[in-house]
Amino acid sequence: MPRGRYSLHDPHDHTPLAEERFHCAPGPSGWRYVSQLTTPSGTASTTPGGAPRAGTAAGSVDLALDDRGRPIRLELHASGWQVRAAALDGVTWVRTDPTGDHATEGNVRAHAFTGSSPGFLIATARLLRLTPDASATRVRLVAFTDPVLAPRTLDQSWALLTREAHATDNGPLAVEEYQVTALDTGEQHTVHISGDVVLSAPGIELEDLESPPSVFT
């Protein structure tokens, strides 16, 4: 069960946005990713006694996939907003405002969900299950955008460029390099994934990993 910490920042000006502490694991029926987000702690990184200064709670992610990579359950929290969602007649969600008085439902003919969490990159890779010799695959996603989890439908193209084994102290580490293209703008970026851990992606840095990534069969 990999556990670790990502730092999230603006991919353009590198402004720190949040830290995301996560754990994830495959199971007999799929894969689950759970994380807690905190805001940057400010200019001081430690308390007067030298201990790390904690940031403010900023939200959470709880995502479960079935054995085919489809989202069977998603729960997001951010800025008092909440989203509960799943793959149903495409994808379906309920978004609730901070007061809890109003909830809006949505449904789109899409394949899955995405957002700022690195867990969504793993989920999309698991859904597509690409091979290096395959052509790019188009996927339609519903993105829940920060800070109020507003839904937006977008189309991407994913291609697996390479799959290589890198030597480590704990044995070979399989790393996959994906090229992701936003089909509305043509903007491209690269994502490096090992098992169920994002090693690097725009706006995402893996800061700490307590155990090796899971190996998917």
| Shape summary | globular
Main sheet characteristics: 15 strands, mixed
SSE string, helix = H, strand = E? EEEEEEEEEHEEEEEE
Strand order of the largest sheet: 8-7-6-5-4-3-2-1-15-14-13-12-11-10-9
Number of strands: 15
User: pLDDT below 50 for ≥5 consecutive residues: which ranges?
Assistant: 42-53
Count of folded domains: 1
Region (Disordered): 38-57
Protein name: Glycolipid-binding domain-containing protein
What does this structure look like?
This protein is mainly β and 217 residues long. It has one domain. The chain contains one helix and 15 strands; from the N terminus they run E-E-E-E-E-E-E-E-E-H-E-E-E-E-E-E. It has one helix spanning 118-128; strands spanning 3-9, 16-27, 30-38, 57-66, 71-78, 81-86, 91-96, 103-108, 112-114, 137-145, 150-166, 173-182, 188-194, 197-201, 204-209. A 15-stranded mixed beta sheet has the order 8-7-6-5-4-3-2-1-15-14-13-12-11-10-9, with helices on one face. The longest helix has 11 residues, at 118-128. The protein is globular and about 55 Å long. This is Glycolipid-binding domain-containing protein. It comes from Streptomyces aurantiacus. Residues 38-57 are annotated as: Disordered.
